[in-house]
Design goal:
The structure is a homodimer. Chain A is an alpha/beta fold. Chain A is built from eight helices and six strands, in the order H-H-H-E-E-H-E-H-E-H-E-H-E-H. Helices cover about 45% and strands about 15% of the residues of chain A. A four-stranded parallel sheet of chain A has the order 4-3-5-6. In chain A, strands 1-2 form a two-stranded antiparallel sheet.
Chain lengths: ~200, ~200
């Protein structure tokens, strides 16, 4: 890579450290950058710095935001008594895209994972508890990921919230819509059977 | 995307304008950036700016470089009388990786393409001509891409160099090594037949 000179080689190296970008893509991106108008390159560099430095979390739901409280927590139209707990702001965005959920969110920023050294204190569980103690909710819907860490986190939160006598629910497991039963794994099939409903 | 706040949304947008990066990847990269240590984000932004601003071209061969002339043109070990003409610094890097070429390069920075409004004057063909007039070469090997633009450029350069009475060669077309004849296109097969050699 020395052949391109130090600035370009360094940029290729920096790009190849990003997730999902291999050597070839990093090279392609670097060549794209050096052929960009200078203001476009400055705009990209500026966006990186301002996103990293300017990232703020909503003091209510811990979501990414630029205003505090965030647009969802500040909205008068949302149902304040239903709180959906998600692992990540992207999960929150995914539920927002459904347009079917009108309550508030709480973003944990991860899931309990002893393997990766992530315990309950590394998440925003204490903030969730305090939030519910301050303004009681009717229902807390736990929408952590359907994997080991997500399930463990769901159980932990359910246990923590038990003394408050709030309805705690978990999103349904089952076969994904549009899927083909043949290709669905056994655990999902059993969960779909367990969760069957009368029609 | 408004859901993530302005700085993060802007970064996602900036990333999705890069080649080969779609909406999902841009989002993933942006979330990676906001979770990076601040000095890593600064280092990436700095690399973008310094690559864009610090990019220099060798005054001899027009390759990307940080020293002028570039390491290859400055090397005493290279054969100065053989010049390989390539479209792009990446093509030059590809030939350097073979370790089989010991001459110098000349980087055109593109190929003649009337469709895209690229004419001979947009490339470094004048610099190539002047370079050869100043210090004559024994052979000019044209290694532009084996497509319409590359072939047109090769023919154009061959014509331009004709009055100088230099040997002008074109890299061979044929079946790629390790390929399967069955999957090689007809044009390549005919070229491989045309270019057959006695063994």
């Amino acid at each position: 890579m020395k052949i391109y000179g130090e600035p370009v080689s360094r940029l290729i190296e920096e790009f190849s450290r990003l997730p999902g970008i291999g050597g070839k893509s990093a090279q392609r991106l670097a060549f794209h950058i050096i052929n960009l108008p200078e203001e476009r390159a400055e705009s990209l560099a500026g966006a990186i710095l301002s996103a990293r430095r300017g990232v703020k979390y909503c003091s209510v739901c811990c979501a990414l935001t630029d205003a505090d409280p965030c647009v969802i927590c500040a909205s008068k139209k949302r149902d304040e008594r239903t709180i959906m707990v998600v692992e990540d702001p992207r999960d929150m965005a995914a539920y927002e895209r459904t347009g079917e959920f009108f309550g508030l969110y709480h973003v944990l920023h991860g899931a309990i994972s002893p393997m990766h050294g992530v315990g309950p204190n590394d998440l925003t569980i204490a903030a969730l508890l305090k939030r519910i103690q301050d303004s009681p909710a009717d229902e807390v819907i736990i929408a952590t990921n359907p994997n080991v860490e997500g399930e463990a986190t769901a159980l932990y939160i359910a246990k923590i919230l038990k003394p408050l006598e709030i309805k705690v629910t978990r999103i349904a497991h089952g076969v994904p819509v549009g899927g083909d039963l043949e290709f669905v794994d056994e655990v999902t099939l059993s969960r779909a059977l367990e969760g069957r409903r009368e029609i």
